[in-house]
Amino acid sequence: MSAKREIRTPILSVVGHIDHGKTTLLDSLRGTTVAEKEAGRVTQHIGATEIPIETIKAICQPLRSDWTGINIPGLLFIDTPGHHAFASLRKRGSALADVAIIVIDVMEGFQPQTLESLNVLRMLKTPFVVVLNKIDRIRGWHSKKQPFILNYRTQPEYLQTEIDTRIYTVAGDLHEKGFSADRYDRIKDFAKNVAIVPVSAKTGEGIADLLLVLIGLSQKYFERTLGLHVEEAGVGTILEKKEEKGLGTTLDVILYDGQLNVGDTIVVGSTDEEPIVTKVKGLLKPRALQEIRLERKFERVKTVYAAAGVKIVAPNLELALPGSQVRVVPDEGSLDAVKADVKSAIDALSMATVPEGLIIKADTMGSLEALAQELKEQGIEAIMRADVGNISKHDVTEATTVRDRYLRVIFGFNVGILPDAKELAEQTALPVFVSDVIYRLIEDYAGWVKQEREREKRALLERMNTPAKVKILPGCVFRQSKPAIVGVDILAGKIRTGVELLKLDGSNIGPINEIQDKGERISRAEQGMQVAIALRKPTVGRQINENDVLYVNLKEEEVEELKKHGGVLSAEELEVLEDVQEIKRKRQFRAE
Q: Is 381 a domain residue?
């Protein structure tokens, strides 16, 4: 093996907040437009792009001509999802990485998901660089495709001050988190300081500066961490499973350790109980600077060295589980041990489920984790089943058995719903939420829950008596008896014809027979209104008087029903409910 192949290609993880330009940054490196093709322009899966060292040297030529001592074969970039739902995927992507890139929008600064990425990298002790992206948006800044440090010198002094101020703000945020940071060209010891590289992914400004810093960091990392060789048996992660015309089922894989050869026996994580054991028939690599998920013209190779994105062609891959491991079996005697390793890794990914809860489906194991994490953050941890694959009739049938109507739903991320499943869902009125962007999926569900709870509240209030209190207005006795007609001020809640009224002493003065507002009959009145009510049972001056406060008399079963549906009553109505219960307790005590 040549000296150039003694160490593997470093893996770089690109992380950060949603829409801060991570994929666009990679587009600038490889001259593609992957960001435009993403669902909702948000990256949903881990993707991989290899940048050869010769390409990097050409881009960095204005800044460096001597490459003595640099012996890494290039850089492999992993593009991870930026939305906070992808904590698990981002953590996994960073765990694979040797060096990380945190992308920050220069106009927005640190955001919650940026800080989350920072915490993950700190936990994993992964060295990182901060990319201050979108500097072309600074008013007056003339951005062009050249190194930042050269373009910076041509800008007016006030713009130099402006961008330096923004850099110091980010450095201050990092300092609060325990990191020392500065603009990359002002750093002498990169082991002790985080480099901040201003760039415009849109114009290409600063890309050379960034690559130069990344090459230096990667080289230093590999010098410190011995043993990053490629002679070992290969280990990788399945990104996606695809059906390819003429090839059958194939796997897009990131090989992050060792080497993989045509003819190798491999063990693959499976949706079945036992891992798949198969033999590699073909290896297809994307061309340099191409994103593996979107590549169409692959190069057939005999051997792949870590780290690399590769498409594996092999028999019996139909049940392969995206997100799980692929491991090379070094010899026949180690097959059982390798199978056990792959199976234990899948078991570690499995999430706890409950007998009664949601059913969630997704296209990869990582997506399931991301969706489960997002649901957990929304306070929903009741997941009955989590599976990879399209939504089936069996899923719908199982979901209809859930008693809680707000958990009697199916979530599908980046999957389809089979025709018979769709038909059954429509027949049973089962809500099925399907989207190719997780945060939209959650938002759609949250919107549905809110709408349904409002509808439920309206229906409950329509059919039930609710707490209310009124005061008989002085000077507003229009008739003393049979029926007594008095003007009342509704102090809280709502009254309607037919409800019975209580006095403060607990005595029942009978139902409201009629309500009038400005001479017109109405069926109900609410807080803030002054209306006339007719009462057949009491006589003014005996059972009731001016200034008396009267309460709607609620039965015990009505009180229990209202308590069961928390949130249907206002704060004033809840206070009235407590008053009514206290009046009844006192009357019961006196009776005893």
A: yes
